[in-house]
Design a protein that fits this description.
MetI-like fold, mainly alpha, MetI-like_sf
Length: 289
């Protein structure tokens, strides 16, 4: 058995898995996007009609806009909170492991469970948030948080951030661990305080961690549908109708597999473009620092 055959034999399982679970479904999605398939029975090819519908109907533009807003909220809040927790835990090694595990626990829960937990917390009748406001003497601030188009998307984003902040924190802590200790010691000897060391040493050296966190959170959030589906069903008045949720509803409620496939292809292209641009900009920032 020659070496080349051995290499091919070891690669074969990965290639088969990639082909069966990624390349073939991707090919089928692209093919179905040019049809009027309903998932069952015969269908016919309709050319670019589905793509024309995607780019000419306002509800799809609204879904993409809401998705971008949702991504911006999640990425900013999750990155900021993850960095804050990581900075505090990096300075407290005695409790670091315990707190890191506690922060990471929500990421191990399913989206369905997290969605129901936050739906209960934000319930206008018996929810924990309104009950807390009542007990604190702030009853005038009680609100139907998921029933108001102004606040619904924000609180769905809050639930997503709560779920994955521990994951972001863990990546930042790994970045802190890679910072040479002699740099910090030298800065202390030069009289730099904690804030100066954070701004001049730690933040620049955490650039790779920023790149990883922003890329992962952006890509993961752009295709999300679980939390909006569980918490709001896309409402109220379409305020949380992300493109991922739009695809699921088009697929399983309207049974328009061709149109849903076209939406999926457009979303895939958008994710690839955003990921490419982000990667170029963030890598360039790393080089500048």
């Amino acid at each position: 058995m020659n070496r080349q055959f051995q290499k091919a034999l070891f690669l074969a399982p990965a290639v088969i898995m990639l082909t069966v679970f990624f390349l073939f479904p991707l090919f089928e999605a692209v093919r179905l996007s040019f049809t009027d398939s309903s998932g069952l029975g015969d269908y016919s090819y309709v050319g670019f009609s589905n793509y024309v519908r995607v780019f000419t109907r306002s509800k799809y533009y609204d879904s993409f806009t809401i998705t971008i807003e949702f991504v911006a909220l999640v990425v900013v809040l999750q990155t900021a909170l993850g960095l804050a927790f990581a900075t505090v835990l990096n300075a407290m090694p005695t409790i670091r492991n315990f707190c890191r595990a506690a922060l990471f626990m929500p990421a191990m829960m399913s989206f369905i469970i997290v969605g129901y937990i936050w739906s209960f917390i934000l319930s206008p009748f018996s929810g924990g948030l309104n009950a807390f406001l009542d007990s604190a003497g702030l009853g005038m601030l009680k609100h139907e948080w998921l029933g108001d188009p102004v606040t619904a998307l924000l609180f769905v984003a809050v639930a997503h951030v709560w779920m994955f902040t521990g994951y972001t924190c863990a990546i930042f802590l790994a970045g802190f661990a890679n910072i040479p200790s002699d740099l910090e010691e030298a800065a202390k000897l030069d009289g730099a305080n904690a804030w100066q060391r954070f701004c001049r040493i730690q933040l620049p050296l955490l650039a790779p961690s920023f790149t990883v966190n922003i890329m992962l959170s952006t890509i993961g959030t752009m295709k999300t549908f679980e939390l909006p589906f569980v918490m709001t069903k896309g409402g109220p008045d379409g305020a949380t109708q992300t493109i991922g949720l739009q695809i699921i509803q088009t697929l399983f409620q309207e049974y328009r597999f061709g149109l849903a496939s076209a939406l999926s292809v457009v979303l895939l292209v958008l994710v690839l473009i955003v990921a490419f641009v982000q990667n170029r900009l963030l890598r360039r920032r790393e080089e500048m620092l």
